[in-house]
Structures are given as C-alpha cells and as structure tokens.
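Please go through the protein record below and explain what the tokens say about the fold. Record follows.
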Amino acid sequence: MANLIILLLPIVAIFLMFRSQKKRQSQQQSMQATLQPGAGVRTIGGLYAQVKAVNEETVELEIAPGVVTYFTKGAIAAVLEPLEYDAIINGRPVEEPADETPAEDAVEAEAGSLSLTKDDSDSVTADRETPGTK
C-alpha cells in the first residue's frame, strides 16, 4: 500500500502542474486575442505602452509620442484598464468613488472620541503605582 502511494504521488503532482500550465496558456491566448488598438499594455519586461496595431504575430506599441516598436504577442504580460493605464503613465492616483470613504470617517470619529487630557493621564499613572509609593 505504501509503495502505491509513493508511485501515485509524483503522478498526481505532474498532472496538477500540467493542468495549471494549460490554464495559464489559455488565459494568455485569450488575452492576446482581445488586444485592440488603443489599449494600454504592460510587457513582460515591464514596459508600459499603448497598442497601435495588432498583426498576425506581432503588436505595434507606442512607447512615447511618435515612437513605435514591434513586439511579439507573447511579450504582452497584461492588458490594463484605461483608468489604470492613465494613472501609471500620467502619475495620477486611481480615483475611488466618493461613496467608498467610510474608513476615513471612522478614523476621524475615533480620533474625536479619544481624549488625552492631563486628568486622564494622572489617573492612569496613579493606578500603576503601588500603594506604598504614594
């Protein structure tokens, strides 16, 4: 029985590795199929650019105004959302909707409820002292 487990364990591990690799390949192919001119992308080398044209095996990327380079489709690591691409290229923070600020309100409310007056700090130190030291 132990020999059977020793033989099956590597086979299962190899199966799982091939399965995850297939999944990644299919995701990469679907991403490459959805490339369109005007989309912002990141290459595997970390270069951010805008797609100018998509050919059969290559992609024309504009890395600066008027500077077009050619990359293979496999060199595209990610297609970025327009707001994310704009934030990266122009240095603007990604804007959050106004209704997602309860965390800031909670911090302000908590800071307002804390009171660090001299009376509070005296009572804390008085509680810490031993009765014989007063």
Notes: Residues 4 and 132 are 73 Å apart (CA to CA).
